Amino acid sequence: MLERIQKIIAQAGIASRRRAEDLIVSGQVEVNGKIVAVLGTKADPERDSIRVGGKPLRLPQQRVSLALNKPDACVSSLADPSGRATLQDCLRGVSGRVFPVGGLEYHSTGLILLTSDGDFAARLFSGLRGGLPQTYQVKIKNPLTPGEMQTITRRVCPIRVYRPGPNPWYEVRLLGARQDRLRNLLFEIGHPVEKLKRVAIGPIELGEIKSGRWRILTPEEIRALEAELTRLEALPSRSRGKKRRKPEPRKA
Can you give the pTM of this predicted structure? Predict the structure, then answer.
């Protein structure tokens, strides 16, 4: 986007706008190899080569972190060699490049986090594998019996009814990458998963984001998420996302 050069220089933290004007008038600013000495000249910092005092101007990178509601029949990546729909199709209006962290299966829907910050993405990925809670809503075939709910609670995680009916929805809160274990157990006991939707990752909730749409995470959400990641990182690695099992009695 075209902006006045003195504004670009100020945004880069090199000088105030007034001082930037002095640099321009004194011939110390070049755009695409040509000296610019006229105030009011505009340039595009993402496309044009700007040098101040002979040194290239670099704008500070701003971290962009998003919450996106992944639709059904969508690959949790930015490209697909088979030509299927991807998250990139949902990112219209996003400036810069962001990367998804914590994908969902092709037919699963719901919350995916994306960020332009590689270090933050690495921390988040580690947190998802190490115990950052994820809340899912699961639609299955036929209601669970109390005994089956106890089995799921004992073998995977607690489960509660979210929306009753002939093919009800349940809600679970998983620690670490356990959705496959839940899906497999439900299939094993005769309740195959029909729909799976992630509605929260740690303190970040899907909320009212429509399918295929996104929103920018607020500074408060970022701080809350970073605080949760810091808490997990301080735990002994053996205890992250794991519950200690009681030793089974030995058979005589």
Answer: 0.72
